[in-house]
């Protein structure tokens, strides 16, 4: 039944299980809906680093925990109350009409193992019996509150006074023996002071208690909690109006657990926030975590709060207040408060389900959508950014009193995202930093001073060789014109030179980009000095140019110079500082300096996970590089787990056909090859190659790399004619892109000669 302490009993059992089985995994699953069930399984998959080969999170977790070798575990399925809510639509049945669907229940994926146990909490006796296949010996029905327990809740002891006991039991009966309702009553009575007696509470219960229009087995207990809620809420509202508003906002969020920092910042009299929460805790309306960073609200209290708002004169107030608080707390993209954004994302999802009615509420929703657009754009999730910004624009244009400045702000942000897309197409793997300030946009490659873009910010649409050549010719012409009209050392001229280096990146057979970036660096050195952040960023860009050309000693030295300079100017854990460190680590791997590489990757990965979040594109790239460094040392099993983790995250956030996703799939195919799983490796290489051929040009460096790796596999398994054909294609492509003498070109030439 609802409100009888099922979750608390589950927590106590979990503590006991952990003591009985030291080291056992305790896994908590929110089973109120299929969506929350799957979200809990995703957390389990991430925490236990479970391989998700088939892309089905539920099945992968079930398969992993179903193996006895994976140790002891306890899974708590909390709140299995509505079986229908746990069904999800599957693919259409074959042979049936259009629109027909298979429906699978999340409960089908509950694991079974000799090493594991499952504890289910439910308000439905029939559902619980069904889940246990009518095996009543495993069914524990929590009894109604006993007289002894009721006395302990109300008095803290068993009184010897018969009259006191009798009045307490009368109250218990009036509250249908609901532990939650009796606990709320006891807390209310204590809050009133020693002069307040139980008889007075009974009098309050007798006056105009509400009737709920509910006809079910749980109606009686819900009615009891509703009675206790009315009394407690009236007291809270009179004693601390802000605490009264807080519990209504928590109810509107409809989340079982909420981080409270954003509420503390936005509520009136924020300095007294802990006092507001303490009052609610003392009255059993919320529970607070030990570190005071989270509060939990039971579904019963949420329902009471929602009905309270619905019956008020302003039924939309609480939802719009929650929206306003989240909007105010969600950081702007330029603040780089990435961890805060990650923490708030579940709450953002909840408030976006609310549909504001007032103009103020719609303005808050638009502001939140705008921030989400900026944040996703910063992450490189450009399609998501465009969607949020378009939704924001639509909302602002629908307002009766249109604010032109706000509409222009959205249009400007949309144009910026599109500019990022064009820039990514022209130079997908180069960090861009244009010298000198400029407010004019003179080409698709211009950027803000000092802005070093993410190495992982890419789009599936890459330029064909013809488009690349056309872009190069255009920017060369613009550079020549600037040199003639403005001079070689003018800021705008250097900006054009930087743009040309970006276009040449990774398709530079003559190595021109190195000379251009030296020129830009020399200009920054003369203009700003060696300690300027702009100079340091251009040092990093020159290191990238050497890196791409395979000149690793020069690249490593420049990366070190850039890192040492940036370390003095940027805060510890700065994403830019970590990006330089990650690039330096990759060069260490190429040089065979594995100890230095491992340490640099460890520091970079830890910093990016803390600052950017575990699924940020740059974090995933560093994790992939760390996996490949481990693979070079023969740690194949660990590498597969890490690569699968990265691949799954990239598929979710970047898409299955994104260039970065496909590169990770190639790395996984290499892992299969090195472990002797040749059929799986070849199948995965061909799958990647087919996807790349649909999305990027045939001469793209990624396609050439996939073909090279496939050729090496084919040669290894004795398919020499096929290997030879792949090597020929790669050799011609690399001659065009890098020239005859580039180390990568020389390597392919040697591979081709080895199969003749």
Automatic annotation (TrEMBL):
This is Kinesin light chain. SUPFAM superfamilies: P-loop containing nucleoside triphosphate hydrolases, TPR-like. It comes from the Eukaryota. Coiled coil: none annotated. Residues 87-106, 418-444 are annotated as: Disordered. Pfam families: TPR_12, TPR_8. It comes from Orbilia brochopaga. InterPro entries: NLR-like (IPR053137), P-loop_NTPase (IPR027417), TPR-like_helical_dom_sf (IPR011990), TPR_rpt (IPR019734).
